[in-house]
Write a structure and sequence with these properties.
Number of strands: 21
Bound molecules: flavin-adenine dinucleotide
Largest sheet: 6 strands, antiparallel, barrel
Number of domains: 2
Shape: elongated
Strand content: 15-25%
Structural class: alpha+beta
């Protein structure tokens, strides 16, 4: 009976194990470094697990070789992924954005379904607290070494994930194991992560959420624009719209700035006339109330501070020139970017083991026959919204077929 070793009991590894075990000929051994399988999965989607997205397509993925993702996504598309989970008992709901969650709103449900399926399978054995330290080529097979044992495998699937979420088990092991077998990797960057910026204004605004259009730029060019919710933190900015441009910030080595437009539905002329109107209608109010009712109170006052308005004045004393500056600041509040919060807080690793060294139709190594890889360890990262787990399911499913 062929012995199949799967290294890593995360999303991709569990999917690969269950797929490989569908062939009753295979004996599957799943090695997991941590005390339990699927630890990171429990923290996904803020504990709700955004397991996939109905709008999944290769356009939502990034890689040095972006064409690599297509075959796996086609071989196990979202519809089949959802059916696969349904057949194993998971009930899901889909939000308007296409994001799919378990109906229970609990990531536990997704992990339970995987865990119970593994428990029920007669040909999967799980070894937890068993970090794989070495994979060696031996004749036509491999020796997989942990502290406790040396295991002979005919085929090996590396599903160790990436460096993101280091507190949840993100490690470099997958890269090291694959590099020891002759593979190479790209540089690694944290992505889907908070940006750190100059802290004067974020500190004042800590906890405030706002809807904005975001522009990330260097002195030479605009790198990316996004729209949506921004949350201010002690060290910078977070929230879905920030996550969307964090990859571009993370991989750039230029000095960057983030510009926030808090009134994206209005052009600058409209904002100016609105402010003139407010001043003329409410002349006796303190100047610090100018943006009350327009923006979150703390944000409004911070913008007045940002343009150095003397808030001891009354509204009537604010000049047209000052109103122009305030209108410009509402639509162009600029924060110098320092970097990102790093791998601890990141949801995914941008970069990884080079996809060009693997066959996209099988996930098998082009360098070492019988060696496969799936999930985040490869140089593939997806946008925020369920795309990274879909990549783990799809590539894990394809690798598990052991074609
Ligand atoms: C906080 C957070 C929230 C997220 N939310 C979402 C979301 O809602 N939707 C989404 O699509 N994506 C989300 N992601 C991303 C997603 O979780 C990952 O992209 C996905 O889990 C990658 O799957 P994987 O199987 O490749 O790696 P992982 O799920 O990380 O699994 C890898 C496993 O390998 C094990 N391992 C590592 N080295 C060894 C070794 N030497 N020996 C044995 N085992 C080893 C690890 O312990 C781990 O269990 C989130 C990530 C984080 C950190």
């Amino acid at each position: 009976m062929p012995e199949i070793a799967i290294i890593g009991g995360g999303a991709g590894g569990m999917m690969a194990a269950l797929t490989a075990a569908e062939n009753p000929e295979n004996r599957v051994r799943l090695f997991e470094r941590q005390a339990r399988v699927g630890r990171k999965l429990l923290s996904t989607g803020n504990g709700r697990c955004n397991l996939t997205n109905l709008n999944c397509s290769p356009a939502h993925y990034h890689s040095e070789t972006p064409e690599f993702v297509g075959s796996a996504l086609e071989a196990f598309p979202v519809s089949e992924t959802l059916q696969w989970f349904r057949e194993r008992g998971l009930v899901t709901v889909t939000e308007d954005s296409g994001r799919v969650y378990p109906l229970s709103n609990s990531a536990n449900s997704v992990l339970d379904v995987l865990r119970l399926s593994i428990e029920q399978s007669e040909n999967i054995t799980v070894s937890t607290a068993a970090p794989v330290l070495e994979i060696k080529r031996t004749g036509t097979g491999f020796t997989v070494k942990t502290e406790q044992e040396s295991f002979h495998a005919d085929k090996v699937i590396v599903a160790c994930g990436g460096m993101a979420g280091s507190k949840l088990g993100g490690v470099k092991d997958g890269y090291t194991l694959l590099q020891s077998l002759g593979h190479s990797r790209t540089s690694l960057h944290p992505a889907l992560v908070q940006l750190t910026t100059e802290t004067e204004y974020p500190k004042r605004l800590k906890g405030v959420r706002a809807d904005a259009r975001l522009t990330l730029s260097s002195s030479r060019k605009t790198l990316m624009r996004t729209e949506g919710e921004v949350q201010f933190t002690e060290k910078g900015v977070s929230g879905p719209a920030v996550f969307d441009l964090s990859r571009a910030a993370s991989v750039s080595d230029e000095k960057l700035q983030l510009t926030l437009d808090f009134l994206r539905e209005y052009n600058i002329k409209d904002v100016f006339s609105m402010l003139v109107n407010r001043r003329d209608r409410l002349p006796g109010l303190p100047a610090e109330e100018l943006l009350t009712g327009v923006l979150h109170n703390r944000l409004g006052r911070t913008i007045l501070h940002y343009v150095n308005l003397d808030t001891k004045k009354t509204m009537a004393q604010i000049t047209d020139m000052e109103l122009k500056d305030i209108a410009r600041a509402c639509k162009g509040f600029t924060l110098p970017v320092k970097g990102t919060e790093g791998f601890d807080s990141a949801q995914v690793t941008a970069g990884g083991v080079k996809c060009s060294e693997f066959d996209p139709n099988t996930m098998e190594s082009k360098l070492v026959p019988g060696l496969y890889a799936c999930g985040e360890v490869l140089d593939v990262d997806g946008d925020c919204g369920g795309f990274n787990l879909q990549w783990a399911w799809a590539s894990g499913h394809l690798a598990g077929r052991l074609l």
